[in-house]
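To assess whether ligand presence alters the predicted conformation, the chain was also submitted together with guanosine-5'-diphosphate. Input:
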Amino acid sequence: MSTDARKMVELPPTLTVRALAERIQASPIDLIKQLMANGVMANINQQIDFDTAAIIIHEMGFDAEPEKQVEEAKPEAVEAAPAWRQALEKEDQKLLTPRPPVVTILGHVDHGKTSLLDAIRSTDVASAEAGGITQRIGAYQVTHNNRLITFLDTPGHAAFTAMRARGAQVTDIVILVVAADDGVMPQTREALAHARAARVPIVVALNKVDKPNANPDKVKHQLSEVGLVPDDFGGDTLVVPVSAKKRTGVDDLLEAVVLTADNTKILANPAGKLIGSIIEAQLDKAKGPIASLLIQNGTLHLGDTLVAGQAHGKIRAMFDFHGAPIEQAGPSTPVSILGLSDLPQAGDLIEVLPSEREARTLTAERKLAAKTAAQGPHKPVSLEDVFAKFQAGEVKELKLIIKADGQGSLEPIISSLNSLGTEALKVNILYAETGNITENDVMLASASDAIVVGFSVQQDTSAQHAAETEGVSVRLYDVIYRLTEDVDKALSGMLEPEKKVVTTGRAEVRAVFNISKTGKIAGCIMREGEAKRNSKIRVIRAGKVVHEGDVASLRHEKEDVREVRQGFECGVGVRDFHELAVGDVLEFFVLQEG
Ligand code: GDP
């Protein structure tokens, strides 16, 4: 075929065989045959990558080129916009003006997040002049070429995601710190998943380039592999070599932030309705609650009456991040304030009300609402209701966070899950890693309306608590087939409501007794909740479930009892399990309908 007769098609990094067939208007069968001729066995719903697709369609008379970025950004419509963005939509669009970008630094532990925040902060002349004795209010600003940039100075994604989970996405740009001597690590990938889920543009700070064993090129390749293709490799991710220690490259990094900000619409109306978010709050014995907040729209004035979550009050004093008293503050400005009645929580949204009476009424209503509905308005997706939500137009994809016990199981899980679903309702794996389910995973799920799926892993206690309070659905499996079958059924609305595991208590095994007639009995102390004679039981050893079954006997001081409460000792027999050991954790649970 002559080259001028060839047709150009734009393709995403991966797509299903069906989608590829649609793009080149060929029959999927022909495509599958062509794939087979090239040694690739694929079914119609299977994902194939760009390179494979390009080779196959080349033989069918097409040339492939990577799809433009704009196309990739499409799913944005699905994600609920953060509260401030929703508020912005109500503003008169003509009055919106650029505001300073708000930046969060994420990255793997010890890659230099804190050092970089310090290095950036030291570029601020005013704090240098003040002898560096600036107040820590959770955020600061620096100027680069006459442009202000706001930095949140709590590094790490726990705070970032906790704020998002409360609807307060304040970050406009993420700086992902990657140490040049260590490269892309598990928490780098985790941070990347958090930033992507929030649809925030990413600038990479390639830190520690001063180290003799720094290998920037190797790290750039690793970055490409996770989809952050550096600009000098032909991609569009700005990767800036820095040394937080030697304080080199910081200016270039700030320049990259400004460039990124210019490519993103970071706007506000300084004269509009006030909206902001609490960054942190603490109780001062003498001054009462001190809250740090970031203004996202409008201008805050001394004397304004505020409501922040369940707290309210008139602003008695307001300070900038240098600790200097100020009377007003506009968009992207971090301030600390005095005058609130209670301690608000990080991520609480701020509004200004006309009078203290109205503010008091609103917070009283909120307190009452919080008591009656511990969950708030946010109702997360569960595997059982994803299809119903899809039919109601509320979701277009099933977002999953996958944790598995090893790379060997992770890969088949990812590829089989990717082959499920339809173009209209597909699986979107936000993050897949090895290791137990942590609180971070649950918070990412909560912020992104995702479900956490674990394969041969445990969830730690803090993750379990977070899942309960956030209402996040966590599904645990030990057989890959069961996992994919459930997801497949969920995507077609065929999944039966699952019986929910409700943990009622946890006991620690302190001693093990051999009783000739009954077998082994664990001498325990109830650490949490209560043990019930008629409940189910799990034996957990070194974080792994080693047995799941029924309670055979429950005793307290030689008496058979129906329940034992927290703090008390008890003797527990486990039916059909004779390997109880000191240090085991016994988890008592019941199964409840959906
Ligand atoms: P974080 O856990 O990401 O906040 O990392 P830190 O900022 O605490 O840094 C971890 C360690 O790396 C500390 O010992 C820092 O002194 C060191 N470090 C940070 N940045 C650099 C750098 O640019 N060069 C070198 N050589 N060491 C650095």
